[in-house]
Amino acid sequence: xxxxxxxxxxxxxxxxxxxxxxxxxxxxxxxxxxxxxxxxxxxxxxxxxxxxxxxxxxxxxxxxxxxxxxxxxxxxxxxxxxxxxxxxxxxxxxxxxxxxxxxxxxxxxxxxxxxxxxxxxxxxxxxxxxxxxxxxxxxxxxxxxxxxxxx
Length: 151
Prior knowledge:
This protein is an alpha/beta fold. The chain has helices at residues 19-30, 83-96; strands at residues 12-16, 33-40, 43-50, 53-60, 76-79, 106-107, 115-120, 126-131. The chain has a four-stranded mixed beta sheet with strand order 1-4-3-2, covered by helices on one side. Strands 5-8-7-6 form a four-stranded mixed beta sheet, covered by helices on one side.
């Protein structure tokens, strides 16, 4: 069997506690379309994406909040083209009362220009939106380690 030459991440599946709340959050923040959903008693799920391409699936089958100290997902990151897009999304998040790890756009490291915002969804899942250029390296919140690794 030969290995896939063009391997890409497919969709990301997230467990959530309140499907309706999570659908509203992800649609508002990421401008996702609702591609499909199922609400069969206790079995509830939603498919979210853009341009008919599935990006995130939400599964209502959890209790409590995201546990960053346990093995599993560290954070989910989305890349955009410009820092201006990040700042526009930051305003949406602030209007929703989202919790941020750092104040505003921060670089990924002390000398880099890539960076973004780090925040949590309603279930405490850690999220990042970043651009490959445009962040001010003088404002790195961590030293000698990647910003996205320790928030």
